[in-house]
Amino acid sequence: MTDCLPLHSGEPLDRHRDRAEARLNAAREEHYRMQLINVARIVTAAVPEAASIDLARDVFDFQNEVWLEAVHAADGTLLWHDAQDPDPLAGFRYANRATWTLAAKVIVETVGQALAGAEITDVADHRPDWSRPSSSGPTELFRITLPDRRVVEHHTTTPPGPDEPRVEVITDRDPDMATEVHVVVDGVPILAEHTDVDPGRGWALSDWRELAAEHAASASPAAAELITQLFRQGESSEYVTA
């Protein structure tokens, strides 16, 4: 029996798990970002100068109901407040005739979706785009900096690209030097594992097969299958001799 509890750090399964967790965390962060971009879209449609919003809740309300308290400009100027009377946005209508009153509720719901079950105080204490302004009485305030207007405009006018990542491969061939291969994934250069299948250099069949086995053993299953296939095809080359 070789299995241990807990899983040892550095084991292949532990590394697979770490990669899965990293992808999950990245997906959560992207989900949060999209929800906040949606909030910014809703707010700035009614208040174009908006740069942040304040959410509030009554600390003595056991249901922890949250509401939209205020909207601020980038310099801190108050642009809208829940207690304003008359409400300066009472006559505002969205393209589908929705009111600002409804929008305020949707904003709070969308922020709740962005939190994905996390406690609002934990988020406010740890995220750089959140802060907790001082308040009097039983009201607790949470200020959220909205995404940049250019980010909002990009995501509301540009459709997403294909689900598959964009993979770019650049091959640098120098007759006097080794061939260099550079790989870029979604615009980010990455360190790639390069397998060169070149029977033209001249090989003994046994050495050729040994090299194939070495490359396949260290590759992923899909890459190993292709490597094995290409090396097998290379055996028919006149430069691979028995």
Keywords summarizing the entry:
alpha+beta; 39% helix; five-stranded antiparallel β-sheet; 242 residues; three-stranded antiparallel β-sheet; 20% strand
Strand order of the largest sheet: 3-2-1-5-4
> Which class do the helix and strand fractions yield?
alpha+beta
Gap between N and C termini, in Å?
42 Å
Largest sheet: number of strands, sense, barrel closure: 5 strands, antiparallel
Mean pLDDT: 89
Oligomer: single chain
Helical run tally: 6
Could you list the spans in which at least 5 consecutive residues all have pLDDT below 50? none
Number of E-state strands: 10
**Percentage of residues in DSSP E strands:** 15-25%
Outline: elongated
Estimated radius of gyration = 29 Å
Q: How would you portray this structure in words?
A:
By secondary structure, the chain is of the alpha+beta class. β2 and β3 form a beta hairpin. The model has no long low-confidence stretch (mean pLDDT 89). The protein contains six helices and ten strands; from the N terminus they run αβββααββαββββααβ. α1 runs antiparallel to α2, α1 packs across α4 and α5 runs antiparallel to α6. The chain has three domains: 146 residues, no CATH class; 33 residues, no CATH class; 47 residues, no CATH class. The chain has a five-stranded antiparallel β-sheet, with helices on one face. Strands 6-7-8 form a three-stranded antiparallel β-sheet, with no helix packed on it.
